[in-house]
Design brief:
This protein has one domain (about 20-95). By secondary structure, it is an alpha+beta fold. The chain has helices at about 1-15, 40-45, 55-65, 80-95; strands spanning about 20-25, 35-40, 70-75, 75-80.
Length: about 100
């Protein structure tokens, strides 16, 4: 009975929110090589915009406020969480390039 409940909840969670796609990113070469995994589209989902939306550096810099502070995104109030802060910082870093 418990197994049925768990498997049913697992199926429902996959219907409501599909499994997250991850992507491995490698920066640098040789000794400076750094590889990490990100959840593709996580920043888009967290800010409530479609995956086709393209962020600009100016937009991301504008909303990159301290953790716990409130900001407005597309007319909706949002609160900066530590995870959102990390995702915005990573997006800005990857957009800057060399």
């Amino acid at each position: 009975m418990v197994v049925e409940f768990l498997s049913r909840n697992k199926m429902l969670s996959n219907i409501i929110m599909p499994p997250k796609k991850t992507q491995r990113i490698t920066l640098g070469e040789g000794k400076d090589k750094n590889t990490f995994t990100i959840k593709k589209g996580a920043l888009h989902r967290q800010l409530g915009v479609p995956d086709s939306y393209k962020f600009s550096k100016a937009e991301l810099r504008k909303i990159n406020v301290e953790t716990g502070k409130k900001f407005e995104w597309k007319g909706k109030p949002k609160t900066m969480t530590p995870l959102l802060k990390k995702r915005i910082t990573l997006a800005l870093t990857l957009m800057s390039g060399k």
